[in-house]
Amino acid sequence: MGLFNLLKTLxxxxxxxxxxxxxxxxxxxxxxxxxxxxxxxxxxxxKSMLVRTRPSDRKKILxxxxxAVLIEEQWxxxxxxxxxxxxxxxxxxxxRARLQKQLRRNPSSNEVEYSQLAKSLDHxxxxxxWGFYRTAxxxxxxxxxxxxxxxxxxxxxxxxxxxxxxxxxxxxxxxxEILREDPPFEPEFGLLVMEVICDVDVLFHNLNLxxxxxxxxxxxxxxxxxxxxxTPLKPNRAWHLLLQDLx
Length: 247
What we know:
Oligomer: single chain
Number of strands: 3
Strand content: 5-15%
Distance between the termini: 57 Å
Radius of gyration: 22 Å
Order of helices and strands: HEEEHHHHHHHHH
Structural class: mainly alpha
């Protein structure tokens, strides 16, 4: 039996062939004009539906938000990473329980993920894995934006821009001899990512900030990062490069 047929049998036996292949809301069954290309609120019930690809037949489907983890599990089985998926889910549940006790309420999935990412920062810093550190910070910014915490999200995106301009490397060691050959930051290879620039631009305008206010905010963030991470690029040079792309 081929892998594709094996997965079809596995999924059908678990009865988890979820999702609507037609443009129909998975909550209220309201029919849409066309299949959405990404997350969309139903015009009838106002609930958010997700767009995913089902691994059993590779069809695009509409699912409820709480069904996303089922699709992730199906893909982990298809990709041979189910053990890693289960370990990540256990960590997620443990962090959820810890936050629930701390907050005295049930935390959202975004809050749990944000907390896990925040914990990973210290690990990446100790391992001199600044590329991974930067990616974790970007993910934290995305979660803040999704929760409509736009002021905080803008601050994180500005931090990511400054780190990007410093050319972060995943050294994985603190050995001085290796770091001389492979330094933690190389500004000559630093690049801004257009998607992050777009996020900065949108939030900058939506928050009705002036360029002077954005500059002040960026310098505060860049100076803090430079002090804590030891980044070599001076904030005024970084601001000049960022401003070129923003313009």
